[in-house]
Design goal:
Blueprint lengths: L6 H10 L4 E5 L4 E3 H17 L7 E5 L4 H12 L3 E5 L5 H11 L1 E6 L14 E3 L21 E7 L7 E6 H14 L7 E4 L6 H14 L2 E4 L5 H11 L3 E4 L1 H9 L13 E4 L6 H8 L5 E6 L6 E4 L14 E2 L4 E7 L34 E3 L5 E7 L6 E2 L3 H6 L1 E2 L2 E10 L5 E6 L4 E3 L2 E3 L1 H8 L5 E11 L3 E10 L7 H6 L13 E4 L13 H8 L3
Parallel strand pairs: 1-10, 3-4, 3-5, 5-6, 9-10, 9-11, 11-12, 12-13, 26-27
Antiparallel strand pairs: 1-2, 7-8, 8-19, 13-14, 14-15, 16-17, 16-18, 18-21, 20-21, 21-22, 23-24, 25-26
Helix pairs in contact: 1-2, 1-3, 2-3, 5-6, 7-8
Length: 525
């Protein structure tokens, strides 16, 4: 049997650099590559004991801890499929995703909740026990094209869908990162963003571990702790969303903190404000804008590094083994159902989700320099499709090109700038929020006859949701009470920060809410 999957990375690294530190946890634990492999093999045998076989889905619920990575590799050794869940999901959301992927078992660590009642999924605790001898090797044939990870991303219909990433998808993404970020064997990455998101996993953890570097894990982000970790561990690379970088720069220790070890800082999840880039440039640090999506594992574009002390612009170039196109409507029709109009969407960045593409075919033409169109992506890092959703998987591709649902333009120097979002996704502090999902939950309230969720600017999170509510006849709505009713049903970051009551909602002839009018009326900060 031959293992060509990512699960074998732990064994290969344990053989090559057994004593090098692979993982450092905030509680002081250190785990060598030999220890990481040992823990992974023990978990793999535990999973087999619970009936997990090749192709079975293994759920994981927990924060950034060594157990996350050990479970990731353990699942890979078995040829099973790793499905990490957002720890902020409400019980109904978690139950839906567990059922949708057909998880055979749910691995849990870090005081995370278990499987919601009624799912029937057994829960297995996987807290680390420190360095130990590995269990017997796990024998399983794993091919690069086998599915390895399912990452759930909300759909425009409000129903989460799982992007299926193969071993090859994640491997090629790691190769892209190693080349374009020039990571080295002595890399020390501070992983402060959640590993259950594609960016922290694909842009940091996997490339660093493949190279033999060290991952410093933070269970939850704290600006002061992040600065302390950079100094204490001599951190060389850091990924985060603008909110994280803004909080670091606003911390009292920022002016005097020793940041001399930092070489690579990548910011995604939303557009990087120029003022924020300038703040870092004044300390001799280049804050590079990244753009990607779960469906691309996730890297698509990365701004060139440029000289230290100079704030880079928003344009990025495709990763080496990833191709992009910007297309506009041809003479016979739109590029697809996600075709761009100048008045749609909001600016987006790293961490977006795929739009609903169409059979654009030869109707789409490449955009001219400076012209806005839809961004399409193709490459070995692009997903195999959506789990158990063949129609949606087919719809999002045109001749092998993935429709991102984001608007972009090609600049004169060949760089690509993401300027708008075709779909209605709200990105708040790096978390993706789809209004349709929130609206569905709001309509369950007996006093709400109609509703829409729109983005409003926020100085801390970039943007947050605002619910526009229409009361049922004879009902006097309390907006705060309506929002409170969502607690426990939706993840906290999805719940709108504010709500207003409107007499009605402007709608098109086909019944769709006219969100631009809603933003004009109710979208002020």
């Amino acid at each position: 049997m031959h293992d060509e999957g990512i699960g074998a990375w732990a064994e290969r690294r344990a053989r090559r650099t057994p004593h090098r530190t692979a993982v450092v946890h905030g509680d002081g634990r250190r785990m060598s590559y030999a220890g990481l492999y040992a823990h992974a093999t023990r978990i793999a045998h535990t999973l087999r004991h619970h009936g997990v076989r090749k192709g079975d889905r293994v759920g994981f619920l927990g924060p950034n801890r060594p157990e996350f990575l050990a479970c990731l590799f353990a699942t890979g050794l078995l040829g099973a499929v790793f499905v990490p869940f957002n720890v902020r999901l409400g019980p109904p959301e978690l139950a839906y995703q567990l059922t949708d992927c057909g998880a055979r078992v749910l691995l849990r660590t870090g005081r995370s909740p278990g499987a919601p009642a009624g799912t029937g999924v057994p829960v297995v605790e996987v807290d680390a026990t420190g360095e130990a001898a590995p269990a017997p090797p796990v024998e399983e044939s794993v091919a690069p094209g086998d599915p390895y990870v399912i990452l759930y991303t909300s759909g425009t219909t409000g129903h989460p869908k799982g992007a299926v990433l193969t071993h090859a998808n994640l491997t090629w993404n790691a190769v892209n990162v190693l080349i374009d970020m020039d990571l080295t064997a002595d890399e020390t990455a501070l992983i402060a963003a959640p590993l259950y998101h594609a960016a922290a996993l694909g842009m940091q953890a996997l490339p660093v571990l493949l190279k033999g570097g060290t991952c410093v894990l933070m269970e939850s982000f704290d600006a002061g702790a992040a600065l302390g970790a950079v100094e204490r561990h001599r951190v060389t690379s850091l990924f985060g969303v603008p909110t994280m970088f803004r909080r670091i720069a606003a911390h009292p220790r920022w002016p005097d903190a020793d940041l001399s070890s930092l070489r690579t800082l990548v910011c995604g999840g939303a557009q990087v404000p120029e003022a924020l880039a300038v703040t870092y440039a004044r300390r001799g640090l280049v804050l590079r804008q990244g753009y990607g999506m779960t469906e691309a594992a996730p890297g698509v574009l990365l701004a060139p590094p440029g000289p230290a002390g100079v704030a880079p612009g928003p344009a990025g170039v495709p990763h080496l083994f990833t191709d992009v196109r910007v297309v506009v409507a041809g003479p016979d029709g739109p590029a697809g159902s996600g075709a761009v109009r100048a008045d749609e969407g909001d600016a987006g960045a790293e961490g977006g989700d795929g739009g609903d593409g169409g059979d654009g075919g030869d109707r789409a033409v490449d955009a001219a320099v400076g012209e806005t169109g839809e961004l399409l992506v193709r490459g070995p890092n692009v997903m195999a499709g959506y789990w158990n959703r063949p129609q949606e998987s087919t719809a999002v591709f045109t001749d092998g090109w993935l429709h991102t649902g984001d608007a972009a333009r090609v600049d004169a120097d060949g760089g690509v700038t993401v300027v708008d979002r075709i779909k209605e996704m709200i990105i708040s502090g790096g978390e993706n929020i789809y209004p349709a999902e929130v609206e569905h939950a709001l309509l369950a309230h007996p006093g709400v006859a109609d509703c829409a969720v729109i983005p409003v600017p926020d100085t801390e999170w970039g943007e947050v949701g605002r619910a526009v509510l229409v009361a049922a006849p004879g009902v006097l709505l309390d907006p705060d009470e309506v929002l409170a009713s969502l607690s426990g049903r939706l993840a906290g970051y999805k719940i709108p920060r504010t709500a207003v009551v409107a007499p009605d909602l402007p709608r098109t002839a086909t019944g769709k809410a006219v969100r631009r009018q809603l933003k004009d009326r109710y979208g002020a900060p």
